[in-house]
């Protein structure tokens, strides 16, 4: 399979490594935002741009019959993205796999599986410890903040603490900045601690994780307990999941299963290299 | 969907409860082994017989265009069962989902997903604490044993201890029986402890569990860590998973995707009741 990468930040670099490690893939190019038409030689393109640029590039590529994979991560807008791309894919015989990361992505598959195992009950997804991009950007936007890092700390039952580390601008007053952060809508609803530091760069770490728990009911039997944990390098996992999804996309296009899909709509076996017999014997 | 149950032991009873709890299913009958042709009014039949009888009944039903689900659990023979039933299903436009329980079954899906997330590395599946059917039957077959229970205790890295509780026949010598159990091929390769008790019935408990761990490599990034844990009622979970797979089988038959499949070949979304839009919004 010929795979291209569009966008070359943390995720694009990690995806490049995952493609090079895949036995059935060839990297045919790493492209920047303005030369996306050069991706035409690829079976699939990994869209590693910022989330808000995903739809534009995916639609262009899908309209040319090229498979795409993105890690679009705004949960409330995923269905709209799927609807828009699904029409383009079906009209042009392509496959777009959207929101292909770990959450949304593989966590979504685990949540679906746990629902199938115990249909009634509660699932809690506890994130971290790890950096929240959205909260970090929000903290950086506060007046007097030179640089920031917002860590997400899981407290259980889907409740999170925000640990906000900040480098102050020269002359900025810590108490004023702290009050502005605590009043911001991103932080006002969670337990938040603001901590001044000399260097945000010295704290840089792409580790992240999840603790996903469900207690539910199978048939009439209560107290069925499930737990899924990860401690991972965030861009490395996201890039790897996107590469595995590119494999699924190309296979689905070969079978004529056109359209835009989320990961809960994929067969796990399609994510893996190798023949069905070998994979069934090794994994089932 | 009209669902029937063939075989009415622990699993059949649990499946009945799961069908009754499903919003989109109707139980159209519970049948015994000799009247399986009466299942013809069903969209799908759950084959809850002993594992060695699965293939015969699945082939009869699939040849009549009826979907089947089984929890065939002899790992080394799963590919042969799939091959035999796949031909019958494709010739008769039916779908058979095989080895649909938790291991093989949902654990298989988790193992596949972890391979897609970190392709290089080791996965360990640690079973229990819980009763091993195979080891219990082997212990019961030893001369001097009136009744037995073999518990599987996980020691990590896929190594297990066997705790074998036995009720002795009148006049049997414990040391002789213990030596025979320890020499049996089922027990000779694991740490095994034999414990005499007054009543096996007093120990009866269908609790089981798994601890599935992987440390692997995403792209070029090592030390990616994953863990999946369950503590569950064994027949209740197996019955529920079979019912969820019946839903997937009927949907696949409607789409013309005929054949025999293991769970790693299913889309998680097909296991769940409801429309795609609702499920994507709730789970992704």
Please give the structural blueprint.
The structure is a homodimer of 284-residue chains.
Chain A: E1 2-6, H1 10-21, E2 26-31, E3 44-47, H2 54-62, E4 67-70, H3 78-92, E5 95-97, H4 106-117, E6 120-127, E7 130-131, H5 133-140, E8 145-156, E9 159-168, H6 174-183, E10 191-196, E11 207-218, E12 221-233, H7 234-254, E13 259-261, H8 276-283
Parallel strand pairs in A: 1-2, 1-3, 3-4, 4-5, 5-13, 9-10
Antiparallel strand pairs in A: 6-11, 7-8, 8-9, 11-12
Helix pairs in contact in A: 1-7, 2-3
Written description of the protein model:
The structure is a homodimer of 284-residue chains. The first copy, chain A, has 284 residues and is of the alpha/beta class. Helices cover 33% and strands 31% of the residues of chain A. The first copy, chain A, has two domains: 2-104 and 235-283, NAD(P)-binding Rossmann-like Domain (Rossmann fold, 3-Layer(aba) Sandwich), CATH 3.40.50; 120-218, Dihydrodipicolinate Reductase, domain 2 (2-Layer Sandwich), CATH 3.30.360. Chain A is built from eight helices and 13 strands. The two termini of chain A are 26 Å apart. At the A-B interface, α1, α3, α4, β12 and α7 of A face α1, α3, α4, β12 and α7 of B.
């Amino acid at each position: 399979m010929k795979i291209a990468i569009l966008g070359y930040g943390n995720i694009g670099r990690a995806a490049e490594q995952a493609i090079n490690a895949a036995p059935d893939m060839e990297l045919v190019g790493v492209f920047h935002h303005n030369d996306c038409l050069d991706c035409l030689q690829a079976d699939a393109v990994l869209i590693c741009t910022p989330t808000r640029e995903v739809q534009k590039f995916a639609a262009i590529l899908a309209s040319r019959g090229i498979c795409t994979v993105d890690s679009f991560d705004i949960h409330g807008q995923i269905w709209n993205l799927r609807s828009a791309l699904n029409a383009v894919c079906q009209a042009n015989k392509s496959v777009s796999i959207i929101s292909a990361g770990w959450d949304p992505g593989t966590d979504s598959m685990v949540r679906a599986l746990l629902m199938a195992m115990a249909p009634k009950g509660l699932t809690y997804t506890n994130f971290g410890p790890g950096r929240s991009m959205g909260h970090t950007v929000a903290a950086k936007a506060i007046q007097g903040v030179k640089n920031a890092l917002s860590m997400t700390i899981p407290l259980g039952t889907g409740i999170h603490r925000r640990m906000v580390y900040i480098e102050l601008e020269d002359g900025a007053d810590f108490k004023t900045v702290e009050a502005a952060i605590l009043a911001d809508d991103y932080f006002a609803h969670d337990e938040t601690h603001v901590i001044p530091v000399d260097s945000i760069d010295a704290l840089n770490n792409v580790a992240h994780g999840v603790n996903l728990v469900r207690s539910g009911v199978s048939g009439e039997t209560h107290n069925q307990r499930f737990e899924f944990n990860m401690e991972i390098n965030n861009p490395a996992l996201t890039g790897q999941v996107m590469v595995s999804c590119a494999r699924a996309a190309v296979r689905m296009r070969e079978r004529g299963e056109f359209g835009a899909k989320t990961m809960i709509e994929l067969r796990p076996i399609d994510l893996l290299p190798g023949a069905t017999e070998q994979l069934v014997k090794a994994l089932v």
